[in-house]
């Protein structure tokens, strides 16, 4: 009975943490004294750490011992558990484009001392150099996108095709006219949709994108996305413009902080969505982009792995089990999650799942699970 109660407690706490990482509903604000990126946070307050949080922290320490410092990840995990929020001013108050509605960074899931920058130049950032290969593959990606999305039979076989934002907060900001088609969610390829778009997924892999999420995003004409933050500072957002109505005319544009830029067909942009931002499509047509969530360049390799491990613990809590068999099964499940689905690399566009690549039970589970793209709390 005691083991059952402990199991129930862990499952319940896991659910709460999954909600925390997707909806991020925390309240405690931490003041900062600088308008720039390296904000000095107040010391973490004393609090009663939850049992699940303690288990994850213990596993993180033991798993990554001797591999490099993960202190910032541990601090992030504790901050999440204690309901802290990073809030910092951003931008130049003397700028003519300064607005308190936009010029602030807010993240309920955060790593300390990461550079806050509205727009990143990928040509000047080694960890963002993937943009060159992705732009070179733009014709291939666009051709596949149009071919698949124009086929009703292929689209009907997909998983949560053109889904709205997953949670109420995101839905309120993005509105009903912003929809996504998920390819990857928290570094796990969608086993259905990725096979529909194998050339796109192959391009992402070949480019070496430090990818956490990948999805197509559509925005209807004559619509806008309200100013909002995606509440996570260790993930940046990258767009490849696919179908940009009147590209270059500034009808489709995005404001981040005190700076506004337009989407351009075939070009990659990278920006920080923990800074308040909005979007406009003033044209009469639908705008499509390939949207990628990527690790912040200031994270070390071991920090990325540690953050990924916290995601895995949330998705597969069996990793924390004291039972060797259960833990082995959980590790096997994570290993399978990391694999690229058969039929992606070297696959034909619009391919279909077969019983050798996915059982009916697995397909049903994935269809029920759906994708979090756009509503993941990463923005």
TrEMBL record:
Any GO MF annotation of the entry: dioxygenase activity
Domain Aspartyl/asparaginy/proline hydroxylase span(s) in chain numbering: 136-297
Residue stretches spanning the membrane: none
A GO cellular component entry from the record: membrane
Signal sequence segment: none
Keywords: Dioxygenase, Oxidoreductase
Source species, domain of life: Eukaryota
InterPro entries: Asp/Arg/Pro-Hydrxlase, Asp/Asn_beta-hydroxylase, IPNS-like_sf
Family recorded in the similarity comment: Belongs to the aspartyl/asparaginyl beta-hydroxylase family.
Protein name: Aspartyl/asparaginy/proline hydroxylase domain-containing protein
Source organism of this protein record: Triparma strigata
């Amino acid at each position: 009975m005691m083991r059952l109660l402990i199991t129930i407690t862990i499952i319940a706490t896991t659910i709460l943490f999954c909600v925390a990482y997707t909806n991020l509903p925390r309240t405690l604000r931490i003041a900062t004294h600088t308008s720039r990126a390296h904000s000095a946070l107040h010391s973490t307050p004393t609090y009663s750490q939850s049992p699940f949080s303690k288990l994850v922290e213990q596993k993180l320490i033991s798993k990554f011992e001797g591999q490099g410092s993960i202190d910032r990840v541990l601090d992030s995990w504790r901050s999440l558990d204690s309901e802290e929020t990073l809030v910092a001013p951003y931008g130049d108050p003397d700028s003519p484009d300064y607005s308190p509605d936009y010029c602030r960074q807010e993240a309920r899931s955060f790593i300390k001392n990461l550079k806050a920058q509205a727009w990143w130049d990928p040509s000047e950032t080694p960890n963002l150099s993937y943009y060159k290969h992705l732009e070179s593959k733009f014709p291939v990606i666009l051709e596949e996108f149009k071919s698949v999305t124009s086929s009703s039979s292929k689209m009907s076989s997909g998983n949560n095709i053109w889904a709205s934002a997953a949670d109420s907060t995101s839905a309120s900001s993005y509105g009903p006219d912003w929809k996504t088609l998920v390819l990857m969610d928290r570094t796990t390829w969608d086993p259905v949709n990725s096979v529909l778009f194998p050339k796109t997924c192959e391009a992402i892999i070949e480019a070496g994108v430090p990818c956490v999420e990948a999805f197509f995003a559509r925005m209807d004409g004559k619509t806008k996305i309200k100013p909002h933050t995606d509440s996570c500072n260790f993930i940046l957002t990258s767009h490849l413009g696919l179908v940009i109505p009147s590209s270059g005319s500034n009808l489709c544009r995005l404001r981040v902080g005190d700076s506004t830029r337009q989407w351009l067909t075939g070009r990659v942009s990278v920006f920080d969505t923990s800074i308040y931002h909005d979007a406009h499509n003033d044209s009469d047509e639908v705008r499509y982009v390939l949207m990628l969530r990527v690790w912040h360049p200031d994270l070390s390799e071991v920090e990325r792995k540690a953050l990924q491990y916290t995601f895995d613990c949330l998705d597969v809590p069996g990793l924390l089990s004291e039972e060797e068999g259960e833990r082995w099964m959980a590790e096997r499940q994570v290993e399978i999650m990391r694999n690229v689905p058969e039929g992606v690399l070297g696959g034909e566009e619009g391919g279909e799942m077969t019983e050798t690549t996915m059982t009916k039970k697995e397909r049903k589970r994935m269809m029920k699970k759906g994708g979090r793209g756009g509503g993941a709390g990463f923005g």
